[in-house]
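Hi team, as promised in this morning's meeting, here are the two structures we talked about. I've kept the exact order from the run log so nobody has to guess. The first one is mostly here for context; it's the second one we should focus on when we meet again. Sequence first, then the predicted structure tokens.
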Amino acid sequence: MAFGKGCHLHLIDGSAFIFRAYHALPPLTRKSDGLPVGAVAGFANMIFRYIEEAKGPDAPTHAAVIFDYSSKTFRNEIFPEYKANRPPPPEDLRPQFPLTRDATRAFNLPCIETEGFEADDIIATLAREAREAGGRVTIISSDKDLMQLIGGGVEMLDAMKNLRIGPDEVEAKFGVRPDRVIDVQALAGDSVDNVPGAPGIGIKTAALLINEYGDLESLLARAEEIKQPKRRQTLIDFADQIRVSKRLVTLDDHAPLDFTLESLEVKDPNPEELMAFLNLMEFRTLTKRVADRFGVEAPTLPPMEPAGADAAARWAAGAAPQPRLEPKAVPEAPFDTSAYVCIRDGETLQAWLSEARALGWLAVDTETTSLDEMRADLVGVSICSVAGKAAYIPLGHTTGGDDLFGGTARAPGQMDLDAALALLKPVLEDEAILKIGQNMKYDLKIFARHGIRVAPFDDTMLMSYAMFSGLHNHGMDELSERYLDHRPIPIKELLGTGKAQITFDKVEIDKAVAYAAEDADITLRLWARFKPMLHRARATTIYETEERPLVPVLADMEMAGVRVDAQVLARMSNAFAQKMAALEAEIQDLAGQPFNVGSPKQLGEILFDQIGVPGGTKGKTGAYSTGADVLEDITTMEDQPKAAALSSKVLDWRQISKLKSTYTDALQGHLNPETGRVHTSYSIAGANTGRLASTDPNLQNIPVRSDEGRRIREAFVAGPGMKIVSLDYSQIELRILAHVADLPAMKEAFREGLDIHAMTASEMFNVPIEGMDPMIRRQAKAINFGVIYGISGFGLARNLRIPRAEAQGFIDRYFERFPGIRKYMDDTVAFAKENGFVETLFGRRIHTPEINAKGPGAGFAKRAAINAPIQGAAADVIRRAMVRMPDAIRGLPATMLLQVHDELIFEVEEGATEALIAAARATMEGAADPAVHLSVPLVVDAGTGASWAEAH
């Protein structure tokens, strides 16, 4: 086909596509040989999307992808320093350049590059030839250097923003029409490309000058007329440099070409050749999409891996990998809840799901009757694949009345639950469709209870957590207001508050649509905002290797639950009640009168008014403060023996009272009647350092230092024929401290397997390890752990119940013996003050916004900054171990039940305990590799028993 009038040429800036793909997407490696292919995957997805969208009346008749041949061109002969400031390409990107050319040819697109010329010069030459032949040209790029070509049938398209760029858009950017862009660029220069320009003259000034004098040569010839002395002298002194700059920014539209426009005629891809390339690259998700598009069978491919990462834990054996999709630009359209759709029939739902299949992603959210995923009923599902276009599928709304059978009457106008889930299931489980959610663990469990294993997925809450930990919370409402400038509909507007509060199934469907569909719309927009930010925030590795793959692991643990013996709890409650009564009698005897031990007001009057303890402070209510910190201080007062004894007894009474109310009484109410187990819920994004938090019930704060606290674990038992196995990292935070602070004595002790607390005591107090007084070792242990948390002499005195001066002396001596710790602390605080964050060994970034604050909060901010890299690294280690664990124990009759900080608890058949311990220990002890090579070994202690107490 001869190129001429009526023809439309698309020129794709291939180099721009490559770098956009590289920086927007997480790094990936080919599973078979570890070759980096992340940029190739993104590039191929962009090209495939381009081909799919370049249709209709404005479709191209001719097209080509243009690449830079190398960094050296004829411009370097003109100005050797041209682009000298640009850093070399990243090492993992270099081997991907030729593969992007292969990808272009695989899609049957002409692949063009010319030695000595930049891609921009080839684009300029092709645009000129096409224009002269009477055709139209669309340059697919956002590169400002190409804007000089616009006009006369040539326009640009920023495909990422779906923005067409014509003469008006150029003038808005440069202040001049396209034919004068190079004059403005010559004056303003370009620091990125090292184009010198005129010192001190920017784009705005350059545009004013060119508009006033007409063109660059006229301006330079009349430079003496310029009134501003500095500007006038610059143009006179740097005239030659400005002219050189113009040559550098002017595109050569006569670059040599060894092909004709006619050879660029658009052709359909050859499915066999394209599938062969995708198969070679092991692009599993894209392969399936292309196969579906061309109606051919996709080959079976291994999953791709995040670069340098472990294989992510799967929902189940053989579950899908996570696709690396590039979000389309989300239009800045206002939120319009009135435009959301209520899906009431299968035909409509199928149409929405077809759109998700075509795009490759679907934001999804569930509405239920409860926050307890194990007991909640599914009320509805909201979906969204295009910003501003969202829908709600009502499934379980009720009228509030009774039906004919004595149940709750079902509201009209809803889909049948089973019918809707039958349509949703193939999409929610489709490997080629990314599911997007906010706090996806909740939704995964809701769907799992209905037989749907959602995969793969992205989680906007965890993206935010990976990037912004320490800066703000990560709930959807806050993220929406911060990053979308939109305040979502408050849930209390639908449910009410207090005693009048209703569950979501009682909300009118019309009102539910706006609220529920908005959640999906917001989630999609947050994803489109956050996904490209991950790489720039250096948070991709943490998100891909720890946050996202941990979700299904935790979901499975939570759904498994842990068996609790209610009778044991009941007996403990009775025993605790008796112990509390005995303590109350002792406390009242010490006080010399009866009083309510549980009343802080009465206790304060006894201590400060009757016994005469000095220093009591009253709050706004007029009552004395009697918090734990106050009572602990009183226990150290040698001149107040009665008050010290009374305070110590009250602390014991409070601890037992809390154990009774929080655990032995409350745990019985948490037993799920269907499973007979307790199902805690883990918060991944709760603590800034990466530590998990356990709620409903909290199983991580069961005290272990007291006999009573340890007894609580007796109620956590194995099922018939099973055992509880506990594996616990030994002193992991001290080991990490020894590594990061480079403490030779500690590192040697850990490598030799010595008692680290005895070694510390020996170093501090110059006493031999053999025959050491247990009290001295206890003091060293308190200091070892206390220093990690920035403990003061005041705090250590409380812990050891010794005078403050003695405690401070211990700490001073500790820093003298281990100077590396003080250096680590000082360096960490200095880094936090300069950068506003600290980092763990694994790259987890924890922001420290209060680090430069003054006043009472300053000390806390410093302690938090010091502790965060250590506690965060320990959290990283156990997260990495948990992510690997499903693969490590697959095939064993064992289930991972709980994580309690540095400990993992399993339930395993009696005959498989040793095999489980061997597999789990190897996984835990090797969890830091290969990301970090610790200079101390990680050691895991293991125990087995009929209960958690026996196993720990």
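And here is the second protein, the one for discussion:
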Amino acid sequence: MPRALPARLRRALPRMSPRRWIAGSAALALVAGLTGWAVWPEDPGFTFTDEMLTVRSGPSGDEPITLDTRYFLPDGASTEQPVPALLLAHGFGGDMHSVHAQAEELAAAGYAVLTWTARGFGRSGGQIHLDSADHEVKDAQRLLDWLAARPEVRRDAPGDPRVGAAGGSYGGALALLLAAQDSRVDAIVPSITWNDLGRAFLPDAAGGAVVDGVFKKAWAGTFFSSGASGGASGGASGGASGGASGAASGGAGVPAGGGAPGGVPAGIDPACGRFAPDVCAAFMTIATTGRATPEAVAVLDRSSPARVLDRIKAPTLLVQGLADTLFPLSEADANARGIAANGTPVRIAWYAGGHDGGAGPRTDRDRVDELTREWLDHYVAGAGAAPPQDFVYSRVAGFDAMDRGLVTNAYTIADYPGLTGETTATVVVAGPAQPIANPPGGNPAALSSLPGVGALSSVLGAADLPGQHAAFVSEPLPEALDVGGSPRVTVRAASPAGEAVLFVKLYDVDPDGGATLSEGLVAPVRLTGLPATIDDAAPVTVTLPAIVRRIDEGHRLRIVVAASDQAFASPAEPAVHTVAVEPAVTLPILTGTPMTGPDAVWRWVLAGLLATIALGLAVVLLLARARHRRVDRSVAAEHADTPLVVDGLRKEYADGFVAVSRVDFTVRRGQVVGLLGPNGAGKTTTLRVLMGLTQPTRGEIRIFGHRLTPGSPVLSRVGALVEGPGFLPHLTGEQNLRAYWKATGRPWADARFEEALEIAGLGDSVHRRTRKYSHGMRQRLAIAQAMLGLPELLVLDEPTDGLDPPQIAQMRRVLQRYATDGRAVLVSSHLLAEVEQTCTHAVVVNKGTIVASGPVEEIVGDSPTVHLDVDDPEAARAVLDGLADVRPLVENGGLVVDLNGTPRSEVVAALVRAGVGVDRVVPRRRLEDAFLALVGDNSRGSGDR
């Protein structure tokens, strides 16, 4: 047996002719090639080398300093084909590894990129001087010399490389200071950096002197800790912006080699770590007292681009983050104005990231990359047209469920409007003068932001402590406002201490009371010379940090003035201040032109492809529908004023199941018609066909004479609640109703909104989010939705489901009143007692067919027994005993009488003649009795679907 197997295999396989051998070999070679291509490592387009370079800098220019460098060289760069270069600097607390990814992108794009670890960080030597002109800036100049000596780097002249400089935060300030000090820099892209380092760490939103500013202790402490450890902690600049330019050059990377060679340099106080003595002394002074000195401010001033902006001639792209409590938008604004005053080309871009927001949403990262490459390609590489100098900004548009991140929209404005906006809007806030307390030692303090996660407060909410803040609130906004820039508010303060440190905030408060402090941004103010009483206080204009935010219609503004804040140093002495806010709050408004994102082309291509597919499917469906039935647009004149006519309705499914075999009934104006039947009788199927949710197999439905078809315009005259309500849980009841009506395409004025709400009886609950609704509240909201526009025909499936008895009684009156105005109502319900009390007519369905229809009293019919309410039951019984064929029975204080054919009028007359008072005569037969007689106690329907 085993010896026969190969022969069988040979017979089973096809005969290998020369043509098949060639084809098989070619296929095998193709598969092998594709497999090799898939697994072969992709050529990155560049190489890089690491080198410890010793440069000479310092005040005298001969101080040796060792810098850890990494040099990226694009493929093909040579003496014959030199390439432009780029210096890429990292953020505070980082090192050259922090910007590795950005360096790779730029090297692949054709730039020779030199990155390095700044002095005092990682494996580089020296001390931290905060981008001092004599130290870090001179170090960068020596690196320019090194690039100028590289044969593969393009030169404008001997010793002058064709070079740009970029970096984020600490690296961004270096790019500005280097361009001011060295004219060889051809273009710069500084991001999320500072203009005035003293003003950044000692801000005063009322415009006071830097030396009197409010110390930003949380950020300063974070920086000091990171610098003292030589960057080993991973980086205080928090993930700065993100882009191919190195805008994401925050200090996220931990140095591979640890701290400086040999640890803390000799002669340096160990408490200062690798900070230079004067920098350390400045921090210690401010951190200890909470107040600056002129000497400390002078140290910060020498590291501030503000003093040298008039010397920057290199075209500048300034990228600044919206989510940045360290270096807010005002820093970029000051840099832009100072550089533009020289006639230097400047472009400003605000994006939804920063020291608190990281690299920002993907949409913004791609946009910053594109802007950076466009800027460098023109001004450094000499390729492409000159980029526009318009203003670009982003605004958060929502949440992308696919990427699980924020999505932003970008806008452009031809002329940069600064922080005051293109126009302004005034919102009035109200509230009396209020006392606020500064706690002893400044603790506990309000929480508005945390270093590196300031945006967290936008999600979790800032914590304003009771007794330490005053609030002033506006009315709901009548329309949405697109705020872009620095809001301004006028405050007055009084204090027996004569001085106060205040923190002013602007909250966006939604209709549910949820308050958002944009990116945790706060305006600190130090006020001196204050009077003891608020009536004597002078107004002070406070400029709040710039924001970009859409404040929606119906939201409120809340101005909060607090006496403490965890991020800042507050006076240690306890005090009680009195604060007031002038009513008018000025909001800057931006109305930019939407900008196409870098990935928009692919999205449009995908959208076009999907639209083509959808169009093709629609055409197929329309053709199929046209073949199966012809749309009847005629109007039956005899039914033109009849709300509903159902004629010969039958619904049979593909598997042969018959849900409705034959249904005929009419609903006329002024009628409330109850559709009754046991479970599975066909009620829901009838309603689904009526609302166009499914197609009948046979028969037709006419609404005001029009034959019902899916999407028929006559459906606008019908309101319905079928198969339960469905609402968006994050919207309020009112917002859900507005969204529903907007989808109809009809004017809001036609919605008769207030009337529908009054009918539904929701009251103030309509302003709550529907996720907080009970089942009954959702049902009432659904009824209100069905009644929007007060349609001429109202179709309701179990409208009292989830309502309590008082609400059911109210709904009964509502439906009766609704029909009396010439409208009509069709109600499907299993509550027979309610149908009997509510409906004028009834249609009883059983097993897919109608077994009875007509006025309710006709279906109920004459009752063989009656219930008599009399004033003397015993006397009445004695009278009735004397009547032939009448059998009386006393029951619960009343009298039940079996008439046995005797007319009710004769019974009543006999009682009245005998002096017995008759208050009421009620038939004992009910709709339930008639219903059971028609369908039987054990009736089962056909299995309604």
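Starting points for discussion:
The chain is about 30% helix and 25% strand.
The chain has a mean pLDDT of 82.
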